[in-house]
Design goal:
Length: about 170
């Protein structure tokens, strides 16, 4: 009789401690990526990073996916969140077509951020959209000298509009 109770207790315990139940790991979103994702609003902010070649500046890179298949959205601003003093360069609002995706790395949007951060940090950012949505994220700062992000930091680059082959040419 005790053997039956012991076996029943062991079966109940085994069931309770097994992987059966709710909230399976395979049912949760998990994207293996170097950046962070936010899928809460009308626009998903995917794989967001700040690519930095030098302390105190970097370039905001992310993919923006418009979940609304009827209405175009616009990415209007990025700035420091949670009281962080991070500012961005001026840029024209970026249109995201209905159901569309915009990758800020290709073609390069060159959204330069400045503030107190360096590679290896996580910076709090506020990402704003034309519909009034604001996404708050803690975004990793990655170096721009390796991997996918190599050379993507536009904060140290300058644009030379002079073509040296025509300088001094009086033709």
């Amino acid at each position: 009789m005790q053997l039956r109770h012991l076996a029943a207790g062991a079966a109940v315990l085994a069931f309770a401690l097994s992987s059966c139940g709710f909230d399976y790991a395979t049912e949760r979103d998990y994207t293996v990526a170097g950046g962070v994702n936010d899928r809460e609003g009308d626009v998903d902010v995917l794989s967001a990073v700040v690519v930095s070649a030098q302390e105190g500046s970097g370039t905001f890179i992310a993919s923006l996916s418009n979940n609304d298949t009827d209405t175009e959205q616009t990415f209007t601003a990025v700035s420091g969140g949670d009281g962080a003093t991070i500012t961005s360069s001026d840029f024209q609002p970026i249109t995201i077509a209905p159901g569309g995706l915009v990758n800020l790395a290709d073609p390069a949007a060159d959204i330069v951020l400045t503030g107190d951060f360096t590679a290896g940090d996580f910076v709090p950012l506020a990402v704003d959209f034309g519909n009034g949505d604001r996404v708050m994220m803690k975004v990793p700062v990655v170096r721009d000298d390796f991997g996918y992000w190599e050379g993507m930091d536009a904060s140290g680059s300058t644009t030379d509009t002079t073509d040296s082959s025509t300088e001094g040419d009086a033709s």
